Amino acid sequence: MIGVITGFTIIMAVIAAGYALGRIGIIPAGDARLMLNRVAFYAATPALLFTVVATSQPQALFSPVIAVSLLATLLTGALFLIVARALPGRGHHSAADTAMGGAAASYVNSNNIGLPVSMYVLGSAAYIPPILVLQMVFLTPLLLAVLGATGEQGGRGAARSVRGAVRTALLSPIVLASAAGLAVCLTSVSVPEPVMAPLEILGGASIPMILMSFGASLNTTTVLDSPKDRPRIILATGLKTLVMPLLAWGLSAALGLTGPERYAAIILAALPTAQNVYNYAATFQKGTIVARDTVLITTFASLPVMLAIAALSGR
């Protein structure tokens, strides 16, 4: 239990620091605050992802727990896309907004809370790098492609727009860094310490910057304060907090996982929405309210869910 509590304490403390700094004007509102997100997106987060993925164990990439995590992510995101079509105010949301809602409902916070939870609750951090790889190398390019596409052109112009957005997504710093880390991991190449050490220091700034920007943003808007976004926020929160762990439980049973592996798959699915989802939304200024509110609510709501899973599993 101490791992779950420790992970949440870390997140809440940094968010609170960002909120306080925004309250007294140290972190300005508006575009000035978004500079933290941009620095994280283009420099700190790529460094963090490279160091984490590059130092992971190759065999962990093929764990059945990771297969359950991927399937649960895809199914949860698909459920959001299906149900969101029936929600009121559909015409007020673009494809990019809907994509951000799907990401908010399914992307797990695998790093700044996933790592301590995996280490202290599951007894190993081996499950986290493969989830990072899946989200950053395979799923994130698709999301960034949608965010980058304007959707305003038709015919060949639209096709060129989508191709350009996909190319931009695949060449984004976080995807390139994750892919490079994966290559190092699979080939067992030794990265020299003079190269790795600066990247580790730079990567250490990623999560604090994202969380502080997130905390500072709470000074300007109340959670669930946007009527047109409220149904999607509630939907994404319910899917992430309750449905995704249930899907992981069902998929684990279907794939024959038992004991520690089934417990790990369910706990990982119960992790809150990743702060990176808010970082993408803030960087591209699409679906920001849904991403921000879902991140905040699931960060609080996932703690009792994880504690209940641990209790029901006899842990």
UniProtKB/TrEMBL annotation:
<dbReference type="InterPro" id="IPR004776">
    <property type="entry name" value="Mem_transp_PIN-like"/>
</dbReference>
<dbReference type="Pfam" id="PF03547">
    <property type="entry name" value="Mem_trans"/>
</dbReference>
<keyword id="KW-1003">Cell membrane</keyword>
<feature type="transmembrane region" description="Helical">
    <location>
        <begin position="233"/>
        <end position="257"/>
    </location>
</feature>
<comment type="similarity">
    <text>Belongs to the auxin efflux carrier (TC 2.A.69) family.</text>
</comment>
<feature type="transmembrane region" description="Helical">
    <location>
        <begin position="39"/>
        <end position="56"/>
    </location>
</feature>
<keyword id="KW-0812">Transmembrane</keyword>
<protein>
    <submittedName>
        <fullName>AEC family transporter</fullName>
    </submittedName>
</protein>
<keyword id="KW-0472">Membrane</keyword>
<feature type="transmembrane region" description="Helical">
    <location>
        <begin position="170"/>
        <end position="189"/>
    </location>
</feature>
<feature type="transmembrane region" description="Helical">
    <location>
        <begin position="294"/>
        <end position="313"/>
    </location>
</feature>
<feature type="transmembrane region" description="Helical">
    <location>
        <begin position="201"/>
        <end position="221"/>
    </location>
</feature>
<feature type="transmembrane region" description="Helical">
    <location>
        <begin position="6"/>
        <end position="27"/>
    </location>
</feature>
<feature type="transmembrane region" description="Helical">
    <location>
        <begin position="127"/>
        <end position="149"/>
    </location>
</feature>
<dbReference type="InterPro" id="IPR038770">
    <property type="entry name" value="Na+/solute_symporter_sf"/>
</dbReference>
<feature type="transmembrane region" description="Helical">
    <location>
        <begin position="62"/>
        <end position="87"/>
    </location>
</feature>
<keyword id="KW-0813">Transport</keyword>
<keyword id="KW-1133">Transmembrane helix</keyword>
<feature type="transmembrane region" description="Helical">
    <location>
        <begin position="263"/>
        <end position="282"/>
    </location>
</feature>
<feature type="transmembrane region" description="Helical">
    <location>
        <begin position="99"/>
        <end position="121"/>
    </location>
</feature>
